[in-house]
C-alpha cells in the first residue's frame, strides 16, 4: 500500500467502525482490552487521531502530550461516530498535506510522516476489531490492509531498539526458534527467525518450530493478540512466549 492509500484508509477504516457501531452499548467491556469500556476505546482512538494530527500539523520534533491515554468519560448515549469521523478526516487531510517525507517526532525516533500514515491505518483497523468484539458484531479486514498490517507488525517487532527499551526481549533468541504464519485463504506467509543475534522477520513460508495456519483476518487478529491462537502445529509454548514479548500495536 502506498502513501495515498494509507491516507484514504484512515478514513475508510473509521467509516467501517462507525457503520458497525449503530446502537452499540458504550458500557460494554472490550474483551481484547479488558480495562476499557467500548466508550473508553472510542475515546482512545479519537484521542490518538487528534494526537498524531497535532504532531504532523506542527511538524513536532519533541513529544506532544498524548490525550489518548485518558479513556475516562460518559458512556451514555449513542457512539460518538461523527466525532470519530471528523477527527479521522482531519488527520488524513493533515498527513496528506504534509506529504510522506517530512520528518517528525515519533515514539521510536524521528521518522517521515509516511510512518504515521501507515501506523494510524493499522491502529484504526485493529481498534475496529476491538470495538466489534465488544459490540458482538462481525469483523473482516480487507486483504490488502490486513497484509500491510502484518508486514508492519513484523517490521516494527524486528527493530533493534526494542532490545534497548526492553532487554528481556533478548530472551526470545535461541537455537531452533522460528515461527511460521500462513494465511489459508490467500497466498501469504510470514517467517519469524529468532535463531541469531537479532530478530529477522521475512515474507515467505519456511520450516519452523511452530506454524499457525488461519484465514487472513483470523491470522491478523492472532498476531495482534486479539484472538487466541488456533490452527497451531508444533511448539505452542514458543508461540505463546513470542506473543508475550510483542507488546505494541
UniProtKB/TrEMBL annotation:
Cross-referenced Pfam families: MDMPI_N
InterPro entries cross-referenced by the UniProt entry: DinB/YfiT-like, Maleyloyr_isom, MDMPI_metal-binding
Positions of region (Disordered): 59-80
Domain Mycothiol-dependent maleylpyruvate isomerase metal-binding: 8-131
GO-annotated cellular components: plasma membrane
Protein name as catalogued: Uncharacterized protein (TIGR03083 family)
Superkingdom of origin organism: Bacteria
SUPFAM superfamilies: DinB/YfiT-like putative metalloenzymes
Molecular-function GO terms, alphabetical: metal ion binding
Transmembrane spans: none
